[in-house]
Amino acid sequence: MKLLLELSMECEPLARSEAIATAEALGGRSKVVRQEPGVLVIDTKADPAALANRLGLCHFVSEWLFTGDEGELAARAGEIDVEGPIRVRSTKVGEVKVDLAGAARLVGGIVGKSKGVDLHHPKSDVRVVFSENAHVGRLLGAIDRTSFEKRKNRYMPYFYPASLHPKFARALVNLTRTRYGGRFLDPFCGTGAIVAEADMIGLDAIGTDLSEKMIEGAKKNLEHVGADASLMLSDVGGIAASVGRVEGIATDPPYGKSTSTKGEGIPALYRRAFDAFSEVLDRGSYLAMVVPRKSLLDDADKFKLLETHSLWVHRSLTRHFCVLRKS
Description:
With 327 residues, the protein is α/β, with parallel strands linked by helices. It has helices spanning 12-27, 48-54, 73-76, 100-115, 145-150, 166-174, 193-200, 212-225, 239-242, 266-280; strands at residues 2-7, 31-36, 39-43, 58-68, 86-92, 124-130, 134-142, 183-186, 204-209, 230-233, 246-251, 281-291, 303-314, 317-326. The chain has two domains: 2-143, 2-Layer Sandwich (VC0802-like), CATH 3.30.2130; 146-326, Vaccinia Virus protein VP39 (Rossmann fold).
């Protein structure tokens, strides 16, 4: 099925990468049909509801009906064949100059003649998304973005300021392409944000950390959000013995500022970590990690760097979301 995805613009390249990786995890290789700012059309075997349930940096998932310029809407609206009654909603990406209400009335008027219109209890929601072109789809799933806000670290029993926002933690998990039920590891689990998101999408989530305080804090946080993951005290160098083989790894390792490494230098820690990751991942498996500077990946010689996406946090910190594949 060809799906129309409306992406978050907070870090759009990361959102696009997450969507493609998640579709691949759910339905195998997917083909990108079209991409424009804030919009991705993919041909995939992934179940649309499962896709919407998994994504973190997306707003809506729809069945793609057609794409055309604004002037084609009236001519092509007659092609829309969905179950009625309908409701039409329109939106735009960025500063596109368009009459959104007028576009919704236009499409609704044409399709509604044969299908009927019900603004409160429609059988089909038709979405018109304006980017470089107008994209029309039938809504299949919406991402519950408010749930991510409720799981922000500031609302957790164990608070730690360096933790990832849940929506970015979810995206990081999805970048590993771990399948439903697959064994997943965060070897620097900290407050548990990443393993919580992994559990919520049906992965067999495991978290390890060198700090007993962090493990205890993560347990409290997981219980608070209703997530269940295996947590254990382990140095990253010992994960082969303590955890064993996993399908994917996503992690936000220490940056060497507010986090403790028990005195070990950051470059040395990362070198040991990459060696340990290569022991527990099969060839072709994915590692998704956040680093404060890309040079820390120089020692990942058993992995191929596929992509990086940079997210500015504040003056002294830019997070680089990196995807690597075991060679």
